[in-house]
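Fold it.
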Amino acid sequence: MAVINANAEAEALNDKLAGLDLAGRLSLVAGLGGRVVFTTSLGIEDQVITAEIGTHRLPIDIATLETGRLFAETLALIEETEAQYDIHIQRFTPEKADIEAYAAKYGLNGFYESVEARHACCGVRKLKPLARALEGATIWITGLRRGQSANRAETPFAEYDAERHLLKVNPLADWDLEAIKAFVSENGVPVNPLHSRGYPSIGCEPCTRAIKPGEPERAGRWWWEQDETRECGLHVAEEASAIAAR
């Protein structure tokens, strides 16, 4: 797919998705052809997307990155969600050799010591498994929302991911947290109990804390770092390319 044509296709899709509700957005994307993959972290917004996929039996593959450091509550929610919607969520785990190599260089919890070490850990536990999850995909669906952080404030409904050579679709881009919570309540969507304990954004257990009153939704992620735009690299091209090159 030529980059110019791909960007034009993404812009056209972005305009179409803007006028649809969530079910309509997902149905449109599912019907575009090719392999469509939704990667879920089991967070509340991702659970909304999973509920719509399962309820409407859409031909969208659902995958999660089982990093080896997830909360027990997150792991339990995977099975609960599969049972409620009669779906299969494919788990992608890090390679044992990569974990051992990381631990030898940085220490198992070396991510606390430097941004480089933290990015390397995300690379091993998330970016490499993501690459396997997206093999053969033409469209990648995510739960990104503009309200999650300043770094995501301009999130479009559709964009071309030049690093991975596919269309990336963010069907909840314009949803706020109150709309998410209302959908969950009205539709009986199972959610992580950690949300009610002050964790609006949930990642790996060693890297996630509850937020304080007034803090942004993602303030509890990698809280020891000072960069307010911090990300793991899944949704930031520069970090993705840098980590993949190591």
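The longest strand covers residues 35-39.
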